[in-house]
Design goal:
This protein has one domain: Nuclear Transport Factor 2, Chain: A. Strands 1, 2, 3, 4, 5, 6 and 7 form a 7-stranded mixed beta sheet that branches. The protein contains 3 helices and 7 strands. The termini are far apart. The chain has 148 residues and is of the alpha+beta class. About 5% of the residues have low confidence. Helix content is 36%, strand content 41%. It is globular and about 40 Å long.
Length: 148
């Protein structure tokens, strides 16, 4: 009986530790979308590393966007104009590297605009905080499952 209790306790501790790691990795991602929804450029800046890369896969190839320009464009929006709703499907962590995959639905002023998926690569900074190093996404208007 004591062995079963010890195994259950250790398993629970592992799961709790993994959940904590996942929440730490999710934080800059959640902050990114909260900053977009609230049009908060200061919060948005905290989500990315200093050398972060932002790209979109288009029908014509890969389009890169300057993160400073992206932040500036978000700051011109009104609160609640943009709403990107995500589902976190997978988080993989190895040391100071994390990979997160999130399908999404995007709304502009309450109207469905498009959907796709985001692929995040995050790095753990020397201060222990996770930051988005690389974000690439897809965008489409068909075959979408709206995320509520």
């Amino acid at each position: 009986m004591n062995k079963i209790f010890a195994i259950a306790l250790l398993s629970g501790s592992f799961c709790l530790g993994q959940q904590t790691k996942n929440l730490e990795v999710e934080k800059p991602i959640r902050n990114l979308f909260l900053a977009m929804k609230t049009a908060d450029p200061e919060l948005l800046k905290t989500a990315f590393s200093d050398t972060g890369i932002l790209q979109t896969i288009t029908k014509d190839g890969i389009k890169s966007e300057d993160i400073k320009e992206f932040i500036a464009s978000i700051s011109k929006m009104a609160k609640d104009d943009l709403d990107e709703r995500i589902t976190i499907e997978a988080i993989h962590i190895d040391g100071n590297l994390a990979s997160v995959f999130t399908p999404y639905s995007f709304y502009v002023k309450g109207k469905f605009s498009h959907c796709g998926a985001n692929s995040f690569q995050l790095v753990k900074q020397q201060n222990g905080e996770w930051k988005i190093q690389y974000l690439i996404d897809t965008r489409r208007k068909d075959n979408c499952k709206e995320i509520k």
